TrEMBL record:
Residues 102-378 form the Exostosin GT47 domain. Pfam families: Exostosin_GT47. It is a single-pass type II membrane protein. This is Exostosin GT47 domain-containing protein. Keywords: Glycosyltransferase, Golgi apparatus, Membrane, Signal-anchor, Transferase, Transmembrane, Transmembrane helix. It comes from the Eukaryota. InterPro entries: Exostosin (IPR004263), Exostosin_GT47 (IPR040911). One of its GO terms (cellular component) is Golgi membrane. GO terms for molecular function: glycosyltransferase activity. Belongs to the glycosyltransferase 47 family. The keyword Zinc does not apply.
Length: 426
């Protein structure tokens, strides 16, 4: 089904309701629909089983209305005719709600702060914190920005931790700088005080991430923090905060796909042994003949892209938590078409409330490391092929662009924010 068709359905539903009841009733229905989709998506994010099964089919909430009325064809003009895929927890709600977001979502960016220091503009669009840079750049290039705060659903606090680190600011000082900046916005503008920050958000991909907000208790408690360190067992608050995917761009080699016959290695991992689970992974599997586990890191910059090329030849890429649970390895695996094996406890996967990760990855607990080979060998070929095919379909969601394009990482983050927007102001 095309986005155009769906939009048309929405229009039809509205029209039917308009003729039956009042405009008020129709708006109420829309509000309820939005509420249902939000509740449903949030509920789904709670739903995670450790089994790598790809079964569970999605439930559609919306009644089929193909047969109702013939009305004006609305061309939403996105030029993309994706079929609705069950990669999403609730595909039809996602399509409809995404369209609504594209048309209506408005963000106000506070203009304060010297862009030559830590504010407003990104440090760079490359390296392991590229996601932060892209967000800062994309939000300005996008249609979501409004210069009228009264139009805004959400308020962006544009201070970059990555840029502070670039200027050698200590972690302690970062917290103080964020605190002073937010306090100055609270004193100068009336918007924060309306909800004590509940319609404000902060974005960082830097490791210090959630910690940089520690100086402002309401920034932690009420505001939405979009961060690359979404571990449930640290400061990240599930359902409120947003997991930002860590993507190391630009990618050294093109995206993988339709290449399962070349994927002859069962599993691959190479990296720093900087966490308990990585030490165990290396210790248990380093000499295995089917799992390609290197206890020494392969330098990305040297060795003729040896590290990246391994992803093309492998079925399953092991993604154990490091010093931070998140790492660019997950996005690398997705890009190169190697099914990620998430090996970590308490981790809020990016877009977990939108995408059904069980359809394109294998999610294991750390204790599964000892049975890793058997678990992967037990996954039938047809299931691997299905995981791989789905993985190729989600590649676009883990890719940043400038300017941003439909369904890319930026728009997925915006959708997560849209789901969390505050609709009532005082
Ligand atoms: C931290 O802030 C203090 C006080 O402003 C300053 O003297 C010091 O140089 C700063 N240190 C770093 C590493 O930014
Ligand atoms: C918001 O509330 C704080 C704390 O009560 C106050 O200090 C600040 O002046 C208020 N901001 C505005 C713009 O009134
Ligand atoms: C498989 O690998 C060979 C040799 O490296 C390469 O020439 C070929 O294009 C690959 N096939 C696919 C579908 O990527
Ligand atoms: C792997 O091989 C090396 C070199 O032979 C040996 O020192 C090490 O103990 C082996 N590791 C395991 C887990 O068997």
């Amino acid at each position: 089904m095309t986005a155009g068709k769906l939009y048309q359905q929405l229009q039809q539903q509205q029209q039917v309701q308009l003729s039956m009841c009042s405009l008020k009733g129709s708006l109420l229905t829309l509000a309820i629909l939005t509420l249902i989709s939000f509740t449903y998506l949030s509920f789904n994010s709670l739903h995670s089983s450790p089994s790598p099964s790809i079964s569970a089919s999605s439930v559609s909430l919306l009644p089929a209305t193909e047969t109702t009325t013939k009305t004006v064809v609305v061309d939403v003009g996105d030029g993309e005719n994706d079929e609705i895929s069950d990669l999403y927890h609730s595909p039809r709600v996602f399509k409809l709600n995404y369209e609504e977001m594209e048309h209506n979502f408005k963000i106000y960016i506070y203009p304060d702060g010297d862009p030559n220091t830590f504010y407003q503009t990104p440090r760079k669009l490359t390296g392991k914190y590229a996601s932060e840079g892209y967000f800062f750049q994309n939000i300005r290039e996008s249609r979501f920005r409004t210069l009228d705060p009264d139009q805004a659903h959400l308020f962006f606090i544009p201070i970059s931790c990555h840029k502070m680190r670039g200027k050698g600011t200590s972690y302690e000082n970062m917290t103080v700088i964020v605190e002073n900046y937010v306090e100055s916005l609270i004193a100068k503008y009336s918007y924060w005080n309306r909800t004590l920050g509940a319609d404000h958000f902060f974005v960082t991909c830097h490791d210090v991430g959630v910690r940089a907000t520690e100086g402002v208790p309401f920034l932690i408690k009420n505001a939405i923090r979009v961060v690359c360190s979404p571990s449930y067992d640290v400061g990240f608050i599930p359902h409120k905060d947003v997991a930002l995917p860590q993507v190391l761009q630009p990618f050294a080699l093109p995206a993988g796909g339709n290449d399962v016959e070349n994927r002859t290695t069962l599993g691959f991992w190479a990296g720093h042994r900087n966490s308990r689970i990585r030490v165990i992974l290396a210790r248990v599997w380093e000499n295995d003949t089917e799992l390609d586990i290197s206890s020494n890191r392969i330098n990305r910059a040297t060795g003729h892209l040896v590290y990246q090329k391994r992803f093309y030849g492998t079925k399953f890429c092991i993604c154990p938590g490091g010093s931070q649970v998140n790492s660019a390895r997950i996005a690398d695996s997705i890009h190169y078409g190697c099914v990620p094996v998430i090996l970590s406890n308490y981790y809020d996967l990016p877009f977990n409330d939108i995408l059904d990760w069980h359809k394109f990855s294998v999610i294991l607990k750390e204790q599964d490391v000892y049975q890793l080979k058997q678990i992967l060998k037990d996954i039938p070929d047809n299931q691997f092929v299905s995981l791989h095919k789905n993985l190729i379909k989600v590649q676009k969601h883990f890719q940043w662009n400038s300017p941003p394009i439909k369904n890319d990482a930026f728009h997925m983050v915006m959708y997560d924010l849209w789901l969390r927007r505050h609709v009532i102001k005082y």
